[in-house]
Design goal:
449 residues; globular
Amino acid sequence: MLKFAVPALGIYLTNPLLSNIDNAFVGRTVGALGLAALSPATLCIDQMLYLFSFLGRAATGLAAREYTSHTNKSEDEAKGKMKDAVSPALSVALFCGTGLSVLYSFFAPAILNALNVDPALHKSATSYIHFRGVVSWAAMAQSILLTIFMVTKDAFTPLKIIAGAALLNVIGDTAFCAWPLRTGCAGAAAATSGATLVSLGWMVRALRQRGMLPSLKVPSGRELRELMSYTGPLLAITITRMAGFMNMQRRAMMLGSTETLAGYQLCSNLLIFFILFGEPLSQLGQTKLPSMIDSERTDEAMATFKSILVLSTFAAAGVGVAAYLTALLGPGMFSSSAGVQAVAKATAPALFFAVSQTIVGIAVDGCMMASRDFGFMLAMGLSSFALQAKLLTYCNTVGDIFGTFTVRLASYVIFSIGRAALGYGNLGRAIRGRKVEQKQKQLIAQKTP
């Protein structure tokens, strides 16, 4: 597991690391006003891309089932089936991504007005949205292509690609934000967009060389129905989660000062960065469990589920401490404002609990995705969203806001693990099926005279 998880971790950490690099360059060269402007700007870009993350998750599920179900056939046949499974998701992603690019290019000011963003932040936020938004199609396509590497257990190739793009982004941030140009938020966005295009090109070339690049085509009715069997419920689930993040953002904007909002932006990016330490564990669940569940390999499913939970618990403790220390000791790396640093330091304990709980939640979520237990996931998403929305009305500090996030994830984890442990749902039947059947047979035998 670790041979796959470690390089996969590098992949998922790279993009949030770049966001934190953007924060550092903008915070140090522009100040608290620029860092505050990134808060609504990244909300518009990153949350909308997160909304469409259901396509990547659907592609992972479809590709994993096709690739692992053809173990008795040749590798070329398995790759062909996998490419056919991913092709509709890639085509839909490019179509939706192009629409997003057009939206951001022409309607960024209207979006900021709808969010009631402080007019003083509009110029910087709009420039960031324009430069980042224009490559939304590339970011969405890259997320789909990445699933192919993950399903085939090749985490090193995309890690090298994304690490190279990250280096280019740092060079671009230096040139556009520090020296010789000082273009602030616009420069940071331009550097990130350039790195996105380069990494997409490298990824396409690598897949073409291996004969694994999906074709672009108009999906057939059957392909759309198969895709919608995943994307329909996953879209609803993703919307509830995105709405929770947006509610947190709105509450932070209601707290008052620019420094408070900038502090929230700093801590929010730290949260996103550190919780992605759980993403490789989610990918393990999504790629390993489907074939075990479908073929009713109960012992293997139970062992895999237990391993993922144990790994996520240790990861949660270690990464939570790292997040706490970063917020407590390292805010000066991201902002020179004493007020922003004070907000980050005060939020450090809440950030520890939020990161720790979310890493376990992400790992559990991957197992639930593998079992396609979407009805339960949506029900829990709606109920935990309502709980968080109510709690947010009582929040007076950034730490309080992150506390509601912890409560929301904790409720999801507790009910998901408890339900599976009792043998309910697809995952529960997969890991408890044999034991439940044995108990039923014993009861029948006892009652038989």
